[in-house]
Design goal:
The protein has four domains: about 50 residues, no CATH class; about 210 residues, no CATH class; about 160 residues, Chondroitin AC/alginate lyase (Glycosyltransferase, Alpha/alpha barrel); about 230 residues, Beta-galactosidase, Chain A, domain 5 (Distorted Sandwich), CATH 2.70.98. About 35% of the residues lie in helices and about 20% in strands. It is built from 21 helices and 23 strands. Strand 1 and strand 2 form a beta hairpin. Helix 12 crosses helix 15. The protein is globular, with a radius of gyration of 26 Å.
């Protein structure tokens, strides 16, 4: 280790572990106590590092605006009143004409026969019509998986899960936060995203039933009536405002020819468009300061209103601001290797949906984003292609998973990433791996037009490599014949979301054999559920005692980021050595060698407090609940349909204790399910795990 790196580690140790009096920081119970015991200088350092040094001035300005009352004054509803809207006095006939011109500047709406050529009637009824019928019966779809009894039209202030109503009247800066008596704000934000409008729009284009067009307008009008501008939490996040506006615009254009679409109703939408863009523009610097997809989504909102409403006096300004933010944020948020700033599969898709919408609208309106921006989005599509399972479309459940599916334009499940992959590869001409896309083609039809259904496979596909590496984001893959192993980890350029350094994901025969846990809820009043899913205990790594890999800071921040000392990626070999600096510092070296479909994983841990490597360690393997797991001395065997598909064996120079315990995973936000977890406890810091992906014809023991 060179002197520069040693000095960097020493500085990080001091900032993260010294108290104002110079003595060593002692953690009492859990990482949260570490945060409260930190000295103010160290705390300020890690908060600034977490939000990004270039964003510190933006955060300070936001704090000043809030504390001084300037932000409150800028959200005064009188500034957003209908009599101030430049579109208020348009004649009814002119309003209709304007919307027909607007339609020409938007995605072409597919004809019924095109949709029917992609989706069988029974599948359509199950995936599109059934959720609509459920919503009309008062059970609104939530996070693409479960429903909430909020009535019809929905009560948009109701969190039916906790039987709580959020307030109407106070300006959003006074009420927009999770916690306290109102729990997770996402449970009331989700219905207000109005993603049901996409289902209704698709259903109307599929069979022309006026029931669906009428429901579009019932939903929009109910939301407008229940959410006076800036006076509910639905206005509290510019990203939510943008998502909602995208859904409204899409659905109104889809039902534009319906008798249910009247000038008076279009007038309400015009007002909503102006209010939405004005609200986003008033506070977009805060979104930029978050260093995540919020800035992209809000920029897409401004870009969309600017393109769709050139008659507005602010249109050019909003369009310019949207473009500038999109182009600058894409270059910062999407790394050179295609990895995304938020270390999350779910947010990677949100980013792609945002950008595909923005790129396509720019192209239609002869106002394209710059080529460098489009190329960087293309790299993110190539990155995603490495993970998408050919048959299920699923990907590793990495990072934060908040249930976002902002462009639900296919009958595929929420967990299927083929729709966005195909739409993006088609739009940008990116060759991707050969796979069947099936129902996923529908999304490409909506975004790219009829040409996208000429084939359900890209014309050209890149050759599949035996290994792949995205060093900037920290993703390394080794492939065997029927799957792959992923090792996650590199030095963070931007704040991490979970304690998942050195996590291993394993896929075999379209099954996520070793898997991540997901998120469940971002806020939960029960500390057990609040902490479990972001803990190292919910990942396939090694935990030292009960310590976390980092110290939990406020909100979504983590302190004491791990430091990668060595990272090696070869065709059959991976090595990742990481120093962890919380509580008792320790070093973990994980090496993985592949021999055909056999993976040999060697974990070596060393405490750095003078104990010479002795400690209590637990290695966890979160195994698929879809297979049966049986003990067959000296290994665990994974079986499905009487076929042996996986064998796992542990070796160590010391005594090890192995058991399967009950664990949890969350594939969909707000929903959790049980899964088995192999826990291997050992003392001397050395453990070898041998995992063979196999079938019945292969040898009986990994050796």
């Amino acid at each position: 280790m060179d002197g520069k790196r040693k000095a960097k580690i020493a500085v990080r140790d001091w900032l993260g572990r010294a108290t104002p009096f110079g003595e060593r920081l002692v953690h009492k119970r859990g990482s949260e106590n570490g945060y409260y015991l930190m000295n103010p200088l160290a705390k300020a350092y890690w908060i600034a590092k977490g939000v990004g040094w270039d964003n510190v001035p933006r955060r300070l300005l936001q704090s000043f605006a809030l504390r001084s009352g300037r932000l409150i004054r800028s959200q005064n509803p009188s500034l957003y009143a209908s009599d101030r809207c430049p579109l208020a006095s348009i004649e009814p006939s002119n309003r209709i004409s304007q919307w027909h011109r607007r339609r020409e500047r938007f995605f072409p709406m597919p004809q019924s026969e095109k949709l029917r050529s992609i989706v069988p009637q029974d599948t359509w009824n199950e995936q599109v019509v059934a959720p609509i019928q459920s919503a009309l019966a008062g059970h609104y779809p939530m996070f693409s998986h479960w429903t909430s009894p909020v009535g019809w039209p929905p009560n948009f202030q109701s969190d039916a899960t906790h039987q709580i109503d959020w307030p109407v009247g106070p300006l959003w800066p006074r009420t927009t936060r999770s916690g306290g008596e109102r729990d997770d704000i996402k449970l009331v934000w989700e219905p207000s995203r109005l993603t049901l409008l996409y289902h209704l729009a698709r259903a109307y284009r599929f069979d022309g039933d006026e029931t669906f067009a009428q429901a579009v307008w019932e939903l929009i009008e109910a939301w407008v009536d229940q959410n006076p501008v800036n006076q509910t939490v639905a206005w509290g996040c510019g990203q939510e405002v943008a998502f909602r506006w995208m859904a409204v615009l899409f659905s109104v254009i889809a039902v534009l020819e319906s008798p249910a679409t009247t000038p008076d109703r279009l007038k309400k939408v015009d007002l909503l468009a102006w209010q939405s863009a004005k609200r986003i523009a008033s506070n977009i610097n805060y979104a930029i300061s978050q260093e995540n997809n919020h800035a992209l989504s809000e920029a897409v909102g401004l870009w969309t209103v600017g393109l769709m409403y050139p008659e507005l006096p602010e249109a050019e300004q909003w369009k310019r601001q949207g473009r500038t933010t999109l182009e600058s944020e894409v270059s910062r948020q999407i790394y050179e290797d295609g990895s995304y700033v938020q270390h999350s599969m779910s947010y990677h898709r949100v980013m792609l949906d945002d950008m595909l919408w923005a790129i396509r609208l720019g192209s239609i309106n002869n106002d394209p984003l710059r080529s460098e921006t489009i190329e960087r989005v293309g790299s993110a599509i190539r990155w995603l292609d490495q993970f998408v399972d050919d048959t299920t479309g699923r990907v590793p459940n990495l990072g934060s998973n908040d249930g976002a599916n902002i462009l639900p334009l296919s009958c595929s499940d929420y967990l299927d990433y083929r729709p966005v992959l195909l739409a993006g590869s088609t739009m940008l001409g990116i060759p991707v791996r050969d796979r069947e896309y099936g129902l996923a083609v529908e999304k490409s039809l909506w975004l790219n037009g009829d040409a996208s259904i000429a084939t359900n496979k890209p014309a050209t596909t890149p050759a599949e490599e035996s290994y792949w590496d995205a060093p900037k984001g920290g993703y390394a893959i080794l492939r065997h014949g029927k799957g792959y192993l992923l090792l996650k980890g590199s030095n963070y350029r931007d704040r991490p979301g979970q304690c998942d350094m050195q996590h291993v994901d394993l896929w075999h025969e379209h099954e996520n054999v070793l898997r991540d846990a997901g998120s469940y809820f971002y806020y939960h009043r029960d500390p057990q559920w609040k902490k479990l899913f972001y803990s190292v205990a919910s990942h396939n790594s090694v935990q030292y005692g009960s310590r976390e890999q980092m110290t939990k800071g406020p909100n979504f921040l983590w302190f004491h980021w791990p430091f990668v000392e060595e990272r090696i990626v070869h065709p059959t070999h991976l090595k990742l050595t990481v120093r962890y600096n919380t509580t008792t510092p320790y070093r973990h070296c994980r090496q993985i060698d592949r021999d055909g479909s056999l993976y040999i994983i060697r974990d070596s841990l060393q405490t750095l407090d003078g104990k010479n490597g002795e400690g209590d360690y637990v290695c966890r393997w979160r195994i698929s609940p879809n297979w049966q797991w049986q003990w067959n001395e000296p290994q665990w065997v994974g079986v499905k349909d009487d076929r042996t598909l996986c064998r796992i064996e542990f070796r160590s120079t010391c005594r090890i204790d192995t058991q399967i315990v009950e664990g949890w995973e969350s594939l969909y936000y707000g929903s959790k399910s049980k899964l088995p977890v192999m826990e291997v406890r050992f003392q001397n810091g050395e453990l070898e795990t041998r995992i063979e992906c196999c079938d019945d014809a292969q040898r009986s023991n990994p050796s």
